[in-house]
Fold:
Amino acid sequence: MTTIQTATGATNTMVLNMGPQHPSTHGVLRILLELDGETVVKAGVDIGYLHTGIEKTAESLTYSQTITITDRMDYLAPLSNNLAYCLSVEKLLDLQVPKRAQYIRVLLTELTRIGSHLVWLGTHAIDLGAMSVFLYCFREREELLKLFEMVSGQRMMTSYFRIGGLALEPPTGWLDRVRNILQSFPSRIDEYEDLLTKNRIWLARTQGVGILTADDAIALGVSGPSLRGSGVDYDVRKYFPYSSYDEFDFTVQVRTEGDCYARYLCRIGEMRESLKIVRQAMEKIPAEGPIKADAPGIVPPQREKMKTEMEALIYHFKIFTEGFAPPPGEVYQRIESPRGELACFIASDGSQRPYRMKMRTPSFVNLQALQKMVEGRLIADVIASIGTLDIVLGEIDR
Amino acid sequence: MTETPDLEQHPAIAKIRAWRPEAVAGLISFRGDVTVIVYPEHLRPLAEMLAKDPFLAYTYLSDVTAMDRFPIEPRFELNYHLLSLSRRDSLCLRVRLQGENPVMETVIPVWPTANWHEREIFDLFGVRFEGHPDLRRLFLPEDWEGYPLRKDYPVEGPR
Structure:
């Protein structure tokens, strides 16, 4: 358990325990605050309440089975987790994914980004007293979850990306649903902005609060919108393009103020940019074409082929009973998740199960910056700072 | 996903070779990821050099990952995944540690973000970091016995 040493010289401070069941900690996060009146003298972060040993579990699952547990890390952006994991296994196998599957992956992860930012905006606003924004955000997120349900059968634990491509062909009419969202969404973002961007209470609660300088942010390994709000334009989609992101035209949202308001503007801007990427992906996706790589023994064969070809039946049986064995070696694959740099490290020893799987989760690293952001500030700013970091405890504790 | 043809041409590797040739234990290039294997005693000064060098500028530490090669010795492997934001380049440093009393010098003074990464590795692998200001378990309770991500940790309890 985390204990706080009373700062030297301070005689009349008190220690306040916040969480792990506090509604504004967005999960099971415990913070110990040493207070001098209402000012935070020292903050200690205690995590681990949601530790489920996902990385250890992966060592006893086959490569395909492991996809299902990656969903459960960042449960607000399961498709981003799927993508990071699948890309790293594909890198290990040196497997090329068909363009059609790549574009659908981009489209879905960008929708995931919007969905995740909606939860962030809603909860961040409700923490700071703006109740109605939350209801609007969840109304729109529902539409996105329905889209995920249409393609994968699941609202949240999608496991839709598979090694070598996608699980299924998206259903007919699905792209029309996406098109509808594209039409209605820009005005919805305007609505949120009407409620918040020039709202005096919102400005008072976020401007100049939770300041993180660019140097501190880099030193602490902060990534994603939390880093870009401090004036660093690091975005994995631009720096190390994956899944054909280099073919898309979008701007990285950067603000220099480094406070909660700057990060708010970054994320709002990112939602609009994501819509732009989705629109481009819609145009790029070919009407026909494979959604899985042609890799017998790794990618399950088509159902139809299994009825006519013996090899297909054998491969199907082998993939689902014993899995496949990538060559020995270690790979590290980064992607840009809604929260920042999400990376997957996989070490293979040449067997059918990952020898070691490690996720570099952005929330875990970003949360380290909390101490820097809140010390010397008022206790009410702690709530704003937690909200602005957009943490998901599932991926912090893993 | 192309193999790097000549590792010696890599700017960081050339610099490391010139700086302290005896520090490098090996080079790996796999699927475009470049890894430099370093002897443990050289890692901390090397980290400082790579982060402070104005051209290389590996100022961003993405991640520290650990791995247990049990029963092979040296048993533990630590990977430091570095990033240079100015050159858009990544590099991995690897050290190997013996299973008997695995100790590594901390890199927190170079990259403060290493704090929780090192605590996580201490928690799950039992590798100690010398000079770490706050080396306690991160995820597991304080009274937990053993280090779960080690390969000789029992995954099934008594039945």
Observations:
- DSSP finds 17 helices and eight strands in chain A.
